[in-house]
């Protein structure tokens, strides 16, 4: 009698693994098709194990953090997807804040503030994960990850775990070395400075009030859709192009902030992508400026 090959769930019973799972349950846009295999590792060793399994089985491997600055296409993602949100430990030692990749960046800023450490206030309202923030050198209000990061722990494609210092991460605007070499961020260490807790928390509160007043936080969205073109403000360009309120399907260029696109209720990833293309075409036609997406777009189109 031939032996039946064990399923991935049977091979790794200690890991939360789901098959044919809709990613719309996890994305901030509330859109996205199914992942063939979706896993939630809890440790760096589990990430290592799953990566090695995917390589052995020739499965494409996709890493997702908090799925905030992300559009997953309606056809879903083939192969294996890892969501790292169960790796969320944060600790503080002296002037250093250590956070695992799946920790919410907002939680890291709160831990820093509670410890009276300054330097992460700019990130107080960024909804992404620590790993995603390192991956894209996330920033807001004049600050970026490169300004606070001391080092990142990464899993290399060869299966080895390495420490990249700030220089080795090669940060630039919304970019890091991680995007180029298919490494996986496992954790980050921030080197901050002592400050006055009341002042730090007051600055964070002021930035969050500013964000709430200007951004459409009441709707599902993928955050800031486009990178800032040199010499321009993206939202101003889109507004001046007459596109504020423009919709594709049930996705709209936000009436509150033209740099955002919101899901009005029944929007799809395809609606988002069509709206992005519309905005790019009109802005280029009117101003000669080529808008580049900041949001990551992953997966496959839905085939009818």
From TrEMBL:
Subcellular location, record wording: Cytoplasm
Catalytic site positions: 174, 224, 294
UniProt entry tagged with the keyword Transferase: no
Required cofactor(s): FAD
Domain of life: Bacteria
Coiled-coil ranges (or none): none
Pathways involved: Cell wall biogenesis; peptidoglycan biosynthesis
Reaction(s) this enzyme catalyzes, per UniProt: UDP-N-acetyl-alpha-D-muramate + NADP(+) = UDP-N-acetyl-3-O-(1-carboxyvinyl)-alpha-D-glucosamine + NADPH + H(+)
GO molecular function, one term: FAD binding
One BP annotation, GO: cell wall organization
Entry's EC annotation: 1.3.1.98
Tagged with keyword Lyase: no
Protein keywords: Cell cycle, Cell division, Cell shape, Cell wall biogenesis/degradation, Cytoplasm, FAD, Flavoprotein, NADP, Oxidoreductase, Peptidoglycan synthesis
Listed GO CC annotations: cytosol
Segments passing through the bilayer: none
SUPFAM superfamilies, per the entry: FAD-binding/transporter-associated domain-like, Uridine diphospho-N-Acetylenolpyruvylglucosamine reductase, MurB, C-terminal domain
InterPro entries, per database record: FAD-bd_PCMH (IPR016166), FAD-bd_PCMH-like_sf (IPR036318), FAD-bd_PCMH_sub1 (IPR016167), FAD-bd_PCMH_sub2 (IPR016169), MurB (IPR003170), MurB_C (IPR011601), MurB_C_sf (IPR036635), Oxid_FAD_bind_N (IPR006094)
One Pfam short name: MurB_C
Domain (FAD-binding PCMH-type): residue spans on this chain: 31-195
Signal peptide per UniProt: none
Function noted in UniProt: Cell wall formation.
Similarity remark: Belongs to the MurB family.
Protein name: UDP-N-acetylenolpyruvoylglucosamine reductase
Source organism of this protein record: Loigolactobacillus rennini DSM 20253
Gene (name only): murB
